[in-house]
Each structure stands twice: as C-alpha cells, then as structure tokens.
Amino acid sequence: MRLYRPRSIRRLLLVGFVLVVVPLMAALIHAAYSVERLVAQGQQALFATVRTTQGSQKLLEAITAMERNARQSRVLGDAELLNVYRDNHQKFLDIAQSLSALNLSALQRQRLALISKVEAQINDVLTAAAAEPPNVESALESFGTLGQDARQLMIDSAALVDHEVKRLEAHGVRLQRSLMLQAMALIPGALILGGIFSIMITRPIRQMDQAIRRLGDGEFSAPAKIVGPRDLEQLGERLDWMRRRLLEVEQEKSRFLRHISHELKTPLTAIREGSELLTEEVVGSLNSQQREIAAILRSNSLQLQKLIENLLDFNVATSRASQLKIERVLLNRLIKDVLEDHKVAVLARQLDLQVSLQRVEIDGDRGKLRTLIDNLVSNAVKFSPVEGVLRVRLEKVGEQAVIEVADSGPGIPAEERRRIFDAFYQGTSAAGGHVRGTGLGLSIAREYAQAHHGYIEVIDSEDSGACLRVIVPTQVPEVSRA
Predict the structure, then answer these.
(1) In the chain, what is the greatest distance between 2 CA atoms, to the nearest angstrom?
(2) Are residues 176 and 236 in the same domain?
(3) For the residues of 58-73, what is the DSSP string, one character each?
(4) 120-159 b/e with 16+ CB inside 10 Å = b?
(5) What is the 3-state secondary structure (H, E, C) of 221-271?
(6) Do 179 and 249 sit in the same domain of this protein?
(7) pTM over cut 0.85
(8) Which of 29, 33, 200, 235 has its Cβ near the most Cβ atoms within 10 Å?
C-alpha cells in the first residue's frame, strides 16, 4: 500500500494541522458543551424543586387560612368570613394547579391529588346551604389531616431536592470520567500524529541535507533520493541532476589531469636527462656559471616532476575504483625511509629534526601510506624557516596509529583549517612559501587517510607553526582489501 504523500509541504502541514488540532478542538468544544448542559440541567432541576417546595409551603398556608376562616365563620356566624374562606379556597385551587404543572414525582402527584380531593369534599360540606352540624364539624376536623398531607408534600419536595443533587453529582462524575477518557485517548493520539507528521516533514529535509553534504564532500556515486511531498521530491530530482553533472565534471577533470600529466612527463623526461648529462659533464667540462645553470635546470626539473606526480597521485586518490593493496607495514620504518629521502632538504634548510617513533605495525597499502607521509613531511619542510624545527611523532593509542608532523613556520589560520584539504586550495601563507606547489599534497593525504578508514586534522602546535595529525586504525576492514 502506498503511503500518503501530499503534493506540497504546505498541504502536508495543513493535513497535519487538521488531523492533530481539529480533534482536540472538537473535544474541547464537546467538553464545554457538556459542562454547560450539566449546569443548565442542574439549574432547571433546582429551580423546579425550589418552586415545588415554595408551592407546597403556600399550599399549607392556604389550608391553614381556610381552616381558620371556616372555624371563625362557624363560631361567629359571619357570612363575610365565609366569603374570605372562598377566596382562600380559590387561592388553594390556583396553587394546586401550578404545582400539578411542575415536574413532580409519582408519589408527589398522588399526594397532591389526594389533598385536592379531600379539600374538595371539605369545601362541598362547608359551602352547602343546609349542611348538618355533625358534617360541618367532621369537615373542619379533616383540615388537620389535610395539613399533615401538605406538610408531607413539603418533606417529599425536600427529599426531591436531595435526590436531584445526588443525580447531578452522579452525572457530573460520569461526565468527568468521560472527559478524562477522551483526554487520555486524544492527547497520546495527537502526540503520535504530531510525531508522524514531524518525521514526514523533517525526513525529506534531512535527506536533502545529507545529499548536499555528500556533494560538498565530493561523493557523487550515491543518488540524491528524496521521499516526501512532491515539491521536495522535485527539488531532490534537481539535486540528483546536479550530482550527475558534477560527476561528469569530475570525470572530465580526472581525464584531463591524467592526459596532461602524461603529456608533460614525456618532454620532462628529456629535460631531466639533458640536465643530468650537463651536470655530470658527460658532453664536456663546464665552467662555474654553466654548472650553476645546469644545477638550476636539474632542480627545477625535479620540482616539476614532483608536481606532475602529485597530479597523478591526486587522480588515483580521488578514483573510487582504486582499492588498497593490503600488507603488513612497519610504520616507524616507513617514516624513517621518508625522512631519509628528505635528508638533503632538511640539511639545506638547517632544520632541527626531532623524531619520536614508537614501533607500530599496521595493515595498509605501503605505497599510499608512503605518499601520505611524504606529502606531510614535504609540506612541513617547505614552510619551515631556515634553522627552524621539524617534529615527527608516531605512537599507538589503543587500536589506532597516530602520526603527527609539525613545523615552526607561519602556521595555518583557524578560518583556513577546514579548506586546506580541498584540492588545489592554497592558503594565505602559500604565497610567502619558499616553493609554490599545486595545492594537492594535503588533499591526497586526506584521501589516502580516508581510504584506510582514518582521518587527518589540523591541531594546535606547541609553537606558532602548523601541526597535522593522521589517525588510522592498525587493522583495515576486509571490504577494503584488494
């Protein structure tokens, strides 16, 4: 099943907002509505019970007033008091009717009906023109039972208030539990959805960042594949197009370096052989000026050969197809051999050579390791002042070999420490160097260090000069073996 992939990151953000925020907003609105409804129900129930209680109280007052009027009328024989009784009787009927319209319980309705029935019977006796005295007296006595029933109706109303309060409390507890369950379900769900959409948004951005970093490091083999919104995928396709173009440019550069290096070596060989013949005076003796010119030709031809070899080494170092020819290498002996090759240059510059080499044996490519060390030493000699200090150190730290080459030259500014390993880059101190090179030595050293699963870095020196440290494992993984 194909996962949902929106056409743009804007749509992805909108979908994420809807899926994460809308349920929370809906739950919040539902909670507010439920609480408001509960409050309204509580208000209605309490209002109804209060009205029932008030009506029961008024009903009792009306019954008491009717009893008083009836008894006074019988004792005094005043017809006006009987009219007052009739007014209270009508008031009783009005109160009973208003009570019957309220939300009464079944027991309360039965009790109200009984009160109304008994009151009607009493009224019939009291308002009859020819009522017999015993019947009148019995009717007056019935007011006592009627009052008791009215009081009981008030008690029932108070019980109804308690019942409504408990019902509302139970409803509130159920609502609280329901809202808690909703929160427990929605909040983790929102967090999970937020995490999913965060991954969907950040993953293509992270993939783009990795692709750009690979391009910046010169790794053009891995395609730039971006999985995410369509607009970011299109940007990834453009990155991959740029990667292919850079790969083509890199291949063209490698072919150019290879061809130009071989083309230069052919005439250079003739120049070197001619300068050697002149220096050795094979073709005849030379005077002092001629010998000096022949020495200059020989020295510069050697330097030119070194530059061409650097171009060839760089072409090989940057080739991803090249593999290491692994063998057991005694690294301290290899460093001594390299220093022996630079003995003449060290003596010519009167350098104080300080060497500290531990016995370290590693698995590596002897030729590439020799080129790596030779470039470091050559670079240090080139930038060392006359009568300067050249320090070379080798030690084993755990399962790693650590090589440090330091000079007492102008040093490397902090802002250039990252770029000096780029191909053809020459720092600001290069212009003041004694010999201007191609800017490939340290780039080749980095490539060979990385080929051995190590790295090279610039560290702070003991004095003002530069100090380069190479760290390589003593054992190279099997995948790197030829």
Answers:
(1) 178
(2) no
(3) HHHHHHHHHHHHHHHH
(4) eebbebbeeeeeeeeebeebbebbeebbebbeebbebbee
(5) CCCCCCCCCHHHHHHHHHHHHHHHHHHHHHHHHHHHHHHHHHHHHHHHHHH
(6) no
(7) no
(8) 200
**Does the pLDDT at position 319 exceed 60?**
no
Note whether 62 and 95 are within 8 A (CB). yes
Check whether residue 179 and residue 287 sit in a common domain.
Answer: no
Q: How many angstroms separate the CA atoms of 208 and 213, rounded?
A: 8
Domain membership of residue 1 (yes or no) is no
Q: What is the pLDDT of residues 83-96, one digit of tens each?
A: 787 888 888 888 88
The yes-or-no verdict on residue 304 having pLDDT over 70 is yes
**Are 348 and 381 part of one and the same domain?**
yes
Rg (Cα) of the chain, in Å, rounded?
A: 53
Q: Which amino acid is at 365?
A: D
Distance from chain centroid for Cα 252: 41
Q: How far apart are alpha carbons 114 and 119 in whole angstroms?
A: 8
* Beta carbons of 100 and 56 less than 8 angstroms apart: no
Q: CA 59 to CA 111: how far, in whole Å? A: 12
**Whole-angstrom distance, CA of residue 222 vs CA of residue 312:** 25
Indicate whether 38 and 125 sit together in one domain: yes
- Does residue 474 share a domain with residue 336? yes
Contact present, 153 and 116 (Cβ < 8 Å):
no
What mean pLDDT do residues 427-451 have? 66
Q: What is the mean pLDDT of residues 190-206?
A: 78
* Number of domains into which the chain is organized: 3
**Structural domain for 376, as ranges:** 323-480
pLDDT over 90, % of the chain: 5
Residues 349 and 390 both lie in one domain:
yes
**pLDDT attached to residue 238:** 85
Q: Are residues 67 and 102 in the same domain?
A: yes
